[in-house]
Design brief:
alpha+beta, globular, archaeoglobus fulgidus dsm 4304 fold, 29% helix
Length: 242
């Protein structure tokens, strides 16, 4: 399927979006393009929003982590105007234009992208992490802080110990996993994005989580960056109006 240019997204209807998602879902690959041992760099992606009058704005931040040292080796950010409305199940059409433009600024291309959101844990198997993979041409994982309930999906809470998980299933299909990254702390929800398998996605998410937070280091660093830059841009806007 030929990919639509992101600048065309604002002209799409909800029906158009669903059609695109359904077509792309047939091209998802649920096997890892790289073994876990060969994954050296992982980028976390997150966005933060604010309003300037009637205009909705967002900043996308990407933090690239060295998996061996767990150090941040590059960050990039980009602000922009959000031109697509919020439609449940169609988040990618809001966020992808800014994600793609921010990723284009990277000088070091990562082995894997982790998104603060979902992959195939989505009604049409096309969450942000999955949709983004077709534009980034790179394996992706979704790690969400909250559970996105899919109709007919089944989930039992994982055991209380760190490293425990339970599968989120629809019949025999694994849509994702509730993963306990710290003992007695609420789980995160891991799902395959594309060119990735659930076991590698789980191991990578757990392996990149440190003591400071229950979410993986790449998306945690990206999240902190989005909050910092959102305040910078909001304060600059307010200063300019005085």
């Amino acid at each position: 399927m030929k990919l639509l240019e992101p600048d065309q997204f604002p002209r799409l209807t909800e029906s158009d979006c669903i059609h695109i998602q359904t077509e792309l879902a047939m091209e998802i690959v649920q096997s890892s393009a790289l073994p876990l041992s060969a994954i050296n760099t992982v980028a976390g992606v997150d966005l933060a929003y604010w309003r300037e009058g009637d205009v909705e704005r967002a900043v996308c931040c990407i933090a690239v982590i060295d998996c061996n040292t767990r150090r941040v080796i590059e960050t990039q950010h980009l602000p922009g105007t959000v031109c697509f409305p919020y439609i449940p199940g169609c988040l990618a059409f809001r966020e992808l234009p800014l994600v793609i433009r921010t990723a284009a600024k990277l000088s070091l291309w990562p082995d894997v992208f982790i998104f603060d959101g979902n992959g195939i844990l989505h009604p049409r198997r096309m969450g942000l992490a999955t949709h983004a993979s077709f534009y980034l041409n790179t394996p992706t994982i979704g790690v969400a802080k909250r559970y996105f309930k899919i109709e007919s999906a089944r989930l039992s809470p994982p055991d209380r110990l760190a490293g425990s998980y339970s599968d989120i299933t629809n019949n025999s299909e694994i849509l994702g996993r509730a993963l306990r990254t710290h003992t007695d702390v609420r789980p995160v929800f891991v799902s395959v994005g594309n060119r990735m398998d659930i076991d590698t996605a789980t191991a990578l998410s757990l392996g990149l989580t440190d003591r400071e937070s229950h979410i993986p280091l790449p998306t945690r660093c990206a999240d902190l960056e989005t909050h910092r830059w959102r305040e910078e841009y909001k304060n600059a806007r307010m200063s300019g109006e005085k």
